[in-house]
């Protein structure tokens, strides 16, 4: 078997004969067995053998070969100058990449150049800006456990942000979902299987790392490199182990160096935020959309940030809406002030566009990887700070004042960069041109020597022409021979005695004089020393700035927060959002009260949107049963309520005319079965396990969205489960609940229970057109419209009419009046137009009148047998909107076959 990582078999077989370089490569492959080793040879990173074949395939580069006395080895190389895009491909293909750099100057090495792995690039530990997307976080996380308590640590190696928390398994799984790490480590004793595979489905690579690094003492030692007293920062042994092991791994990937810029280890309590589990995050489409939706996530609507810092902060607010009313209201105050004072807001937003990603920048400074341009970018950002401060001078809200105070102008750093670093420096920091003149006397002297020398050389041509009388005499310079005086062959007899021959060309001779040689030595010596000195000065300046990284990070945090608050204000103003009010949830004011609520995403993608009110909890009853035809707007309505709650609690204004809300502790969602078939479980099983979580986990302060519970099983069971669930929530939980259902029978529960009430969506009919009004109204809908939708979909008329008869008969049995809307449809039905479909598309379905007239004769004679009853029940259960054309055909075919069987 061949393997891409680890020592290549071909080399192992001839280990003792390998050339020194190949033997070095083999050794590194053995040391970094689980990584693809990229081995610097000059300007390329080379891979050999199977690894070379894989790199060539993934990076689409040429596979070549290297031949020596021991054999022929496949080889492929990626250019170092342009490595990022290739590395990205290798990471995407699921590899860890060990970068083996030449760690000594090839020209100074005697024999084999020394090479060492300076960095292991893995999805969770990327620091290279070119590999990271702007404004995102990129975490590597680890989980450790102490009996039933799990601890999670996460670090963003590109910014130095480090988080630690502990909770039960379920909450840690939720936190993992929020943190969305790119890479995940499990400490010994934690089984990856204990975490819902869904959590890992976010794309985290699971990495095995030295279990010893997670031992208590080792972890303590590692952490002691970051904080003076580890036990004061972490609360438990498991936290210590998670955090210590994780940092040890992060160090390992960064060439075994301590990551000085990881100085903020923040311990947080998951209870400080609104709980949103994986299902809720997905079904509310906060960050990502699902196939069936509008194509936009909530974050797309909100993200109008000015800088990468703000973008990252906004994401983190959205992942963790708050539950502390005071903190939420402080954000609202600030958003309100920015919303009101558009001039201040726009000025701040405008200034923030010049702000660089300070967090990543200062991390690069601390890692010793920042170049002179990075430091100039730091200065550009710092130049903006006084202007931001002056724009904010008159702000009143507590939060904005706090941020104003937190804006450290870092004058010392700004001044240092201004004095030290050249204004438009090159990328390389070893070749001079990076330090300002006037910053260092010695450097200025060296530069003066160099300048004077060059001036002297520049004048030499004229003075030598005069002295020798040779008009064509040239003074020039080349890399190999240095300065020379060139005289063409016909003039050689005029050459003075002090000229010494340097080089003979075809038509001329090149000379130097002792003085020219001396000047040359001076110039080159000064230039070389100046470059070295510049490098030294630059690295000194860089370390001085690194020493201020805490202050830079604090400034970054304040700028990030300002950006988010100003952005939320813009979103509020542009989209007509209102500031939500909160109440304490005491019995008389309990409830979610929204007037004219809108779905923040759907309203942006549709030409028109119908606002709807919500009264849930308090006098209204805690549980709303929502009925209405498919596509009438039930799901949109439910999600809009949840999104208003989420927006309000993250600090945003909300899409409504007014909103008075409780502080919700948790949002649960259980949405349509067919939407969530990923994960391998049977859909019904999955539905029930989500329901279990809700019934166990919800409190009176939770918001629960139930969309079609019980659909994955037989109608009778489904109805029963739906009813029992409603009763349980009413009796035992008292959560704010929106329950959309096609089980019309469920509406009867409202007559029996005070805590339950009905809402419905209707369709209006104008002539032949059926239009969905998308307006929610009190009371139960007159019909579930399943039969009408079957008709619209072209189900044979006989089946439709038979179904309708059955439904009517059942309604009569229950003492209801039947389904007027359905009969109207039949009476008028030549053409039924459904005007609104997802994504604003239109569909028209024709029902053939003639055909239906022909078939009606049969219908009267049809006996009520079991087969038809079954078919009708099945039709009633079909959710046309969620049925693929193939499924529809298969089911139709099946129905038809059963009809045929019955007739034959
Ligand atoms: N308030 C509204 N104003 C305008 N259009 C709306 C509104 N609510 C929903 N819609 C549109 O109607 C479409 C269907 O809405 P939705 O998915 O909420 O229906 P539904 O009743 O949940 O359907 P089903 O029962 O099939 O799941 C949406 O995609 C949207 O385009």
UniProtKB/TrEMBL annotation:
Region (Disordered) residue spans: 833-865
Domain (DNA mismatch repair proteins mutS family): residue spans on this chain: 702-718
Gene Ontology molecular function: ATP binding; ATP-dependent DNA damage sensor activity; damaged DNA binding; mismatched DNA binding
Matches recorded under Gene3D superfamilies: 1.10.1420.10, DNA repair protein MutS, domain I (3.40.1170.10), MutS, connector domain (3.30.420.110), P-loop containing nucleotide triphosphate hydrolases (3.40.50.300)
Biased amino acid composition, Basic and acidic residues: 855-865
UniProt entry keywords in alphabetical sequence: ATP-binding, DNA damage, DNA repair, DNA-binding, Nucleotide-binding
Domain of life: Archaea
Sites where the protein binds ATP: 628-635
Example GO biological process: mismatch repair
Homology family: Belongs to the DNA mismatch repair MutS family.
Role according to the record: This protein is involved in the repair of mismatches in DNA. It is possible that it carries out the mismatch recognition step. This protein has a weak ATPase activity.
Identification of the protein by name: DNA mismatch repair protein MutS
Source lineage: Archaea, Methanobacteriati, Methanobacteriota, Stenosarchaea group, Halobacteria
């Amino acid at each position: 078997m061949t393997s891409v990582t680890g020592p290549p078999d071909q080399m192992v077989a001839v280990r003792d004969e390998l050339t020194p370089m190949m033997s070095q490569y083999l050794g590194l492959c053995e040391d970094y067995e689980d990584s693809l080793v990229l081995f610097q040879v000059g300007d390329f990173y080379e891979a050999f053998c199977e690894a070379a074949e894989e790199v060539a395939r993934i990076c689409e580069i040429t596979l070549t070969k290297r031949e020596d006395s021991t054999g022929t080895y496949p080889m492929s190389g990626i250019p170092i100058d342009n490595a990022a895009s290739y590395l990205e491909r290798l990471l995407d293909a699921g590899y860890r990449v060990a970068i083996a750099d030449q760690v000594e100057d090839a020209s100074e090495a005697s024999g084999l150049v020394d090479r060492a792995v300076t960095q292991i690039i893995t999805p969770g530990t990327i620091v290279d800006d070119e590999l990271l997307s702007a404004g995102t976080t990129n975490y590597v996380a680890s989980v450790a456990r102490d009996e039933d308590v799990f601890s999670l640590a996460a670090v963003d190696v590109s910014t130095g942000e480090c988080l630690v928390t502990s909770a039960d398994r379920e909450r840690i799984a939720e936190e993992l979902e929020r943190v969305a790490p790119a890479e995940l480590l499990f400490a010994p004793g934690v089984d990856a299987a204990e975490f819902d595979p869904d959590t890992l489905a976010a794309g985290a690579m699971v990495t095995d790392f030295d279990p010893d690094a997670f031992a208590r003492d080792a972890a303590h030692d590692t952490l002691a490199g970051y904080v003076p007293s580890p036990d004061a920062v972490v609360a438990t042994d498991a936290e210590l182990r998670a955090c210590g092991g994780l940092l040890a791994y992060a160090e390992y990937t960064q060439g075994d160096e301590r990551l000085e810029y990881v100085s903020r280890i923040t311990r947080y309590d998951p209870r400080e935020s609104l709980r949103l589990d994986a299902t809720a995050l997905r079904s509310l489409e906060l960050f990502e959309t699902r196939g069936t939706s509008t194509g936009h996530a909530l974050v797309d609507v909100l993200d109008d940030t000015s800088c990468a810092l703000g973008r990252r902060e906004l994401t983190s607010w959205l992942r963790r809406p708050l539950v502390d009313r005071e903190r939420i209201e402080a954000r609202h105050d600030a958003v309100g002030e920015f919303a009101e004072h558009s001039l201040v807001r726009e000025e701040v937003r405008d200034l923030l566009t010049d702000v660089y990603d300070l967090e990543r920048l200062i991390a690069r400074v601390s890692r010793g990887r920042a170049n002179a341009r990075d430091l100039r970018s730091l200065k550009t950002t710092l130049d903006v700070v006084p202007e931001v401060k002056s724009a904010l001078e008159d702000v009143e809200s507590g939060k904005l004042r706090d941020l104003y105070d937190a804006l450290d102008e870092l004058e010392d750093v700004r001044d240092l960069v201004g004095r030290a670093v050249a204004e438009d420096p090159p990328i390389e920091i070893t070749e001079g041109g990076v330090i300002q003149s006037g910053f260092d006397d010695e450097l200025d002297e060296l530069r003066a020597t160099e300048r004077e020398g060059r001036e002297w050389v520049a004048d030499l041509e004229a003075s030598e022409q005069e002295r020798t009388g040779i008009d064509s005499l040239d003074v020039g310079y080349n890399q190999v021979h240095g300065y020379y005086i060139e005289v063409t062959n016909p003039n050689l007899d005029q050459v003075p005695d002090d000229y010494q021959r340097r080089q003979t060309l075809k038509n001329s001779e090149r000379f130097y004089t002792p003085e020219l040689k001396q000047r040359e030595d001076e110039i080159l010596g000064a230039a070389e020393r100046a470059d070295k000195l510049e490098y030294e000065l630059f690295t000194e300046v860089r370390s001085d700035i690194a020493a201020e990284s805490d202050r830079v990070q604090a400034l970054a945090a304040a700028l990030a927060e300002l950006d988010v608050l100003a952005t939320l204000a813009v979103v509020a103003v542009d989209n007509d959002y209102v500031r939500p009010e909160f109440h304490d949830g005491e019995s008389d004011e309990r409830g979610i009260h929204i007037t004219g609520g809108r779905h923040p995403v759907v309203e942006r993608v549709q030409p028109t949107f119908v606002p709807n009110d919500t009264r849930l909890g308090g006098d209204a009853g805690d549980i709303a049963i929502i009925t209405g035809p498919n596509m009438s707007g039930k799901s949109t309505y439910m999600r809009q309520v949840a999104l208003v709650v989420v927006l309000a609690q993250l600090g945003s204004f909300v899409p409504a005319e007014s909103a008075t809300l409780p502080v919700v502790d948790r949002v649960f969602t259980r949405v349509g079965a067919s939407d969530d078939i990923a994960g391998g479980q049977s859909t019904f099983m999955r539905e029930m396990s989500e329901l279990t979580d809700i019934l166990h986990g919800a409190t009176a302060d939770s918001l629960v969205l139930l969309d079609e519970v019980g659909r994955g099983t037989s109608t009778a069971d489904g109805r029963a489960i739906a009813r029992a669930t409603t009763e349980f929530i009413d009796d035992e939980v008292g959560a704010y609940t929106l329950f959309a259902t096609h089980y019309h029978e469920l509406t009867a529960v409202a007559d029996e229970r005070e805590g339950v009430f009905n809402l419905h969506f209707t369709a209006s009919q104008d002539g032949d057109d059926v239009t969905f009004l998308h307006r929610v109204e009190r009371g139960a809908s007159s019909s579930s419209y399943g039969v009408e939708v079957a008709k619209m979909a072209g189900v044979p008329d006989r089946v439709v009419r038979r179904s309708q008869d059955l439904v009517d008969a059942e309604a009569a049995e229950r003492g209801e009046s039947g389904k007027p809307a359905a009969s109207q449809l039949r009476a008028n039905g030549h053409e039924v137009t459904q005007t609104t479909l997802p994504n604003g598309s239109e569909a028209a379905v024709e029902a053939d009148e003639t055909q239906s007239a022909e078939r009606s004769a049969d219908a009267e004679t049809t006996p009520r047998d079991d087969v038809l009853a079954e078919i009708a029940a099945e039709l009633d259960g079909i959710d046309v909107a969620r049925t693929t054309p193939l499924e529809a055909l298969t089911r139709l075919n099946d129905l038809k076959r059963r009809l045929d069987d019955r007739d034959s």
